[in-house]
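From the pipeline queue, job 12 of 40. The input is one protein chain; the requested action is below.

Action: predict structure.
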Amino acid sequence: MQSTTQTTHVAPSLSTTSTGFADSASNRVSGIQVTAAIKALADSSVAELRFLRVDESENEICLTGRVRSFYHKQLAQEAIRPVAAGRQVVNRVDVCMGS
């Protein structure tokens, strides 16, 4: 039987002044390990992408949350693809169009 570890994260803002990012050596923000996928979203110029949830396992990276356009959904997926390291990227981001 194969055991799978799963980690759940929400992309934090990596600004040192507003989030209390204190331990850059271990890349930890408020006790949550910052992964390359989270950093890719947090560094995005599209604010909506910074609030998406990232779930990681040995085999996949799963994105969930809401954005206002299919373009932003695609941007989120492509932002983390370079750091997926051979894992499948699962995009479960909902597009909520309207007012």
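Job complete. Helices lie at 36-42, 70-80.
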